[in-house]
Amino acid sequence: MRSLCVYCGSSPGADAAYTTAAASLGSLLARQDIRVVYGGGRVGLMGVLADAAIAEGGRVVGVITRALLAKEVAHRGLQQLVVVDTMHERKAAMSDMADGFVMLPGGFGTLDEFFEAVTWTQLGVHSKPCGILDVNGFFTPLLDLLDEAVRQRFIRIEHRQMLIIESTPDLLLGRFDSWRPTVAEKWLDRTDR
After folding, report:
1. Which member of 42, 69, 151, 171 has the lowest number of beta carbons within 10 Å of its beta carbon?
2. Which residues contact 172 (CB under 8 A, 6 or more apart)?
């Protein structure tokens, strides 16, 4: 893996563990020479992630819309800041630059961006791993909902199993190294869909 897209909040959240996790992930990615692709912000977990990677000598690319740039939330210390017109262009650009996706705690935007990447993996638009860094059980209610969606037959079990979920950055990245797109490929080959 050469490049990882990280989706996370523009707020630091209520628990200091979230900022600690974002900093740990940014540092780890830099030490492993994995480029960070993210939303380009200087605030919240986004800023913490970028600052930590930069402090370790890592490569960081931000992708931000003109509207957010105008609000002066862009990180000015990045090696590269890509400015686009729409959120759709932002998501596509981030996806194109990444070999995989990670979601940290965040709000609607974080969830939207991550689950679009998951859907693209499910549909075979790309074959890239999607992982959740579940800091202090933040995502437990969401994971329970996904499990209920499986029980109610809205999500296939093989699609639910595509998600890599760990509580620490090192465990999460370790699982990314062994991920193979076989589940998505098997589903795409099915004739009964």
Report:
1. 151
2. 102, 131, 133, 164, 166
Helix (H) or strand (E) holding 173: helix 169-178
| pTM, full prediction | 0.91
82/151 Cα distance (integer angstroms): 41
> Which token pair is 73?
């939330």
CATH code where residue 135 lies: 3.40.50.450
Specify the number of domains making up the chain. Answer: 1
Q: Pick from 68, 10, 21: which is nearest to 171 by CA?
A: 21
Q: How far apart are alpha carbons 142 and 127 in whole angstroms?
A: 23
Write the CB contacts of 30 (distance below 8 Å, at least 6 apart in sequence). Answer: 36, 52, 53, 54, 55, 56, 57, 58, 59
Range(s) of the domain holding residue 118: 3-189
Binned average pLDDT, 10 residues per bin, the chain of 193 residues: 96 97 98 97 97 98 93 90 96 96 97 96 91 97 97 94 95 88 48 37
How confident is the model at residue 192, as a pLDDT?
A: 38
Taking the C-alpha atoms of residue 53 and residue 28, their distance in angstroms, rounded to an integer, is 8
